[in-house]
Design goal:
phosphoenolpyruvate--protein phosphotransferase, binds phosphoenolpyruvate, single chain, 8-stranded parallel β-barrel, binds magnesium ion, alpha/beta
Length: about 325
């Protein structure tokens, strides 16, 4: 099959009209890295580091974390590795990290808010990431950002810890765009972040005010809702204004109906579930950016998610 052939060839992905689109994989464990590469992943666009922290009595120390990150970096060869800082909180509890019961965990202490409230936890993880060789190997991604202060605080810690370790290599530091606040302020974030990666799972939950884990509203939680698409468009505009790349590492990157719209909105990196990498890569090679842009314009003009999905289904049927 075409998808399998592409994966085997290990070729870098371009659209049918020659635009480079990076196809990365989301990883949640070191064992997933080599199989993802075998499926054609060109890097890791989201390493969910929670796997190291959950279901244990004490947090992993710097040496343990560093060994894990190094193993994943080595399995990826020279391919980019984007390490997301710990994203846990009220919804993903850890016994050594007591967080007072919250009425609204999704709106409480989670993502980078935990790291900033527990500086030792954040510093240990940053030291472990900075220790991966060669220096500068890992790109660092900050989850659940809502304000510039959070990015600035992390950048200051990265600079201080790198100086302490005698490292001169530049470290790439980007944010996940998962809150409407980050999407609407993308131009300001892009002035200070090296990249923007949209977490469409949370961005959808927060834009629609629908709990992504609540079965009663699950039917409505659709990243193709036109309100979410407008936030994605705003994010891409903000990134482009400062020459930063904008990617998607949420579920939409693994949704073949969403991919043409995302490219049309200006996304140039897709980080998908490893199993979906061959299909997404094969799909992108058949798309032209001109078609995607016209399609995205039409999607932005839709009134409901159902309309967008119907439009996307027609686009897929009519694809050459
Ligand atoms: C997201 O929110 O889209 C995302 C990629 O992060 P997670 O699913 O781990 O919350
Ligand atoms: Mg998220």
């Amino acid at each position: 099959r075409r998808a399998e052939a592409l994966a085997r060839a290990g070729t870098l992905c371009h659209s049918a009209d020659g635009v480079r689109i990076e196809i990365f994989a989301n990883l949640g464990h070191r064992d997933e890295a080599a199989p993802a590469v075998a499926r054609g992943a060109e890097g890791c666009g989201l390493l969910r580091t929670e796997f190291l922290f959950l279901e244990r009595a004490a947090a992993p120390d710097e040496a343990e974390q560093s060994a894990e990150y190094q193993a994943i970096a080595d399995a990826l060869g020279e391919r980019p590795l984007i390490v997301r800082l710990l994203d846990i909180g009220g919804d993903k509890p850890a016994p050594y990290l007591p967080i007072a019961p919250e009425e609204n965990p999704a709106l409480g202490l989670r993502g980078i808010r935990v790291g900033l409230a527990r500086p030792a936890l954040l510093d240990t993880q940053l030291r472990a990431i900075l220790a991966v060789r060669p220096a500068g190997r890992c790109h660092i991604m900050v989850p659940m950002v809502a304000g510039l202060e959070e990015l600035r605080a992390v950048r200051a810690r990265v600079a201080a810890l790198a100086a302490e370790a005698g490292l001169a290599a530049p470290f790439r530091l980007g944010i996940m765009v998962e809150t409407p606040a980050a999407a609407m302020l993308a131009d300001r974030f892009a002035a200070e972040a090296d990249f923007l990666s949209i977490g469409t799972n949370d961005l959808t939950q927060y834009a629609l005010a629908m709990d992504r884990g609540n079965a009663a509203v699950a039917g409505g939680v659709d990243g193709l809702h036109p309100a979410v698409l407008r936030l994605i468009a705003e994010t891409c505009r903000g990134g482009a204004r400062h020459g930063r790349w904008t990617g998607v590492c949420g579920g939409l990157a693994s949704d073949p109906l969403a991919v043409p719209i995302l490219l049309g909105l200006g996304v140039t990196e897709l980080s998908a579930a490893p199993a979906m990498v061959p299909d997404i890569k094969a799909l992108v090679t058949r798309l032209t950016l001109a078609d995607c842009r016209a399609h995205a314009e039409a999607a932005l003009a839709c009134a409901t998610a159902a309309e967008v999905r119907a439009l996307a289904a027609r686009f897929a049927e009519e694809m050459p």
